[in-house]
Amino acid sequence: MLDISQLCVSYGQSEVIHGVDLTTGAGQIVSVMGRNGMGKTTLFKAIMGVLPSKSGSIKVDGKDVTKLPSYQRVKAGLAYVPQGRMIFPKLTVWENLLTGLEGSATGRLPDDIFTMFPVLKEMRARHGGNLSGGQQQQLAIARALAAGPKVLLLDEPTEGLQPSIIKDIAQVLLKIRDSRNLTILVSEQVLSFTMQITDRMLVIEGGKFTADETRENVDVERVKRLLAV
After folding, report:
1. Which CATH architecture has domain 2-83+150-228?
2. What whole-number distance in Å separates Cα of residue 170 and Cα of residue 117?
3. What is the tens place of the pLDDT at every residue in 125-170?
4. Measured between alpha carbons, how far is 152 from 135 in angstroms, rounded to an integer?
5. DSSP letters along the chain, please?
6. pTM of the shown model
7. For the stretch 75-104, what's the b/e string if a residue is b when 16 or more beta carbons lie within 10 angstroms of its beta carbon?
8. Cα 227 from Cα 229, distance rounded (Å)
9. 177, 149 in Cβ contact below 8 A?
10. Distances (CA, A) of 139 to 47, 51, 60, 81, 175
11. Contact indicator for 109, 147 with CB cutoff of 8 Å
12. Alpha-carbon distance values, 92 to 47, 88, 100, 197 (Å)
């Protein structure tokens, strides 16, 4: 569903992502673990087209999107929840959801949005800025799903959230994976959250993947040490 080959990304003359490869299937949650500054957000922005790629290729369901602008990547099946959520605080929940329809093939919200996010149904008329952090994260995910993507990118979705809310987000992501059979790519630093949701874990260090394991084979103690450095 997502096929990345020899991707390199630079800030000016400084290369940050060094020829990474990643292939995922539908119905998988794949996590990218790493400390701050290791390249997680840069990688996600490059996949989404927010940052240009220096070289390599990005394909979504077989379609090469490497040279496409972000809005065309959305139409090709990519959706992105950035770090910090970035919902529109002065728009209502309903209005925020409608902004996600720009790349939708149907032009209407999927029927299951409020089934997956019942709290948003209750708060449709409330301004986004008046929601709690966990509710804003659910809104950001729901908005990304509005266009019916094939691949959902989540950049540090647990940032700033309480442990009880993190568990709720984990359950939501598992429900999305199972009901929609899409690929979810998550960047994270919270190992306990990642181990709840992931089917496969990659570790990124210095702009390169240094580990790629199924959840059953993850060396948890090694990952803990890497994240603690």
Report:
1. 3-Layer(aba) Sandwich (3.40)
2. 13
3. 999 999 999 999 999 999 999 989 999 999 999 998 988 889 999 9
4. 18
5. -EEEEEEEEEETTEEEEEEEEEEE-TT-EEEEE--TTSSHHHHHHHHHTSS--SEEEEEETTEE-TTS-HHHHHHHTEEEE-TT----TTSBHHHHHHHGGGG-SSSS--TTHHHH-HHHHHTTTSBGGGS-HHHHHHHHHHHHHTT--SEEEEESTTTT--HHHHHHHHHHHHHHHHHH--EEEEEES-HHHHHHH-SEEEEEETTEEEEEEEGGG--HHHHHHHHH-
6. 0.92
7. ebbbbbbbbebebeeeebbeebbbebbebb
8. 6
9. no
10. 22, 24, 24, 10, 15
11. no
12. 29, 8, 13, 30
How many CB atoms within 10 Å of residue 69? 10
**Geometric angle at alpha carbon 53, from 50 and 58, rounded to 5°:** 90
116 neighbors 142 (Cβ within 8 angstroms): yes
Strand partners, 15: 10
Residue ranges of domains in the chain: 2-83+150-228
On whether the CB atoms of residues 41 and 191 are closer than 8 A, the answer is no
CB-based contacts of 13, cutoff 8 Å, min separation 6: none
Q: Which residues of the chain have pLDDT under 50?
A: none
Amino acid found at 163: P
Residue type, 37: G
β-pair type (183-188, 29-33): parallel
**Angstrom distance (rounded) from CA 178 to CA 116:** 12
| Amino acid (one-letter) located at 200 | R
